[in-house]
Amino acid sequence: WVDRARDFTSGGNLFILHLPKMATHSQRVLRLYRNSLKQTLSWVVDRGLYRQYALELREKFEQGRQERNAVKAAQLLVAGEAELERIKHPDPIVPPTALDGTKWERNSPPPASVCVMSPQEESWYNDKRNWS
User: Fold this and answer.
1) Could you tell me the pTM of the whole model?
2) Element housing 88 (H / E)
């Protein structure tokens, strides 16, 4: 990608376009925690029981938070991501209005061409309005 990036040089400045950003360790931990909570909700529907599991999960993350050795912290993160992959629900709960949810595009607005009244409909509407 460096050779391709050199094509974008201008005045000695190197411009690199559209390179993916690597997530920091804390971003990866945050994503792991969030996804773990979502997976827990897919497995445990009862909110009281879910809250208990969520508190246990938070306790595990707090224990890992105390780790000051970067190598050990990275190993804990990789182990957590592997555990998440292992326990993923085969049919996770999707919010109804989210993409692929049960209500996704159920009541989408009709196209504008359908909303225009024909002359016959307009006369019927005006006749009903004048009648009452």
Assistant:
1) 0.61
2) none
